[in-house]
Please model this.
Amino acid sequence: MKIAIPTNDGIYLAEKTGHARGFMIYHIKKGGIKRKVHILLPQHLNHDYNQNGKEKNGHHSHKDLIEFLSANDLIIVKRIGAHLKQDFLNQGLPFQIVNKKFLDEVIEEYLQQKILV
Model:
């Protein structure tokens, strides 16, 4: 099983999924972490905002991000915008919203089945 969690630094959950610089990908096998990989996203996959708070390219598409995440069995997020949430639902991407700070805390709770999908 593969679980993706948005992060900017590999330690904390990103506050906003669509603005995350990357994802920690956990490979889970037999109730434990087999491997974890921190993947930094190419700039075009996260929202690239200029100083005025507007996207530089004028578009609001999650197509590439959805494609990147589709290889995962679960996406665990802290916050997700309405458009990205709808795109997850439309594509059948399973996700869970949690109110946690640390990646390790989240994955341990998942392994202890405290986070149910």
Notes: The longest helix spans residues 82-91.
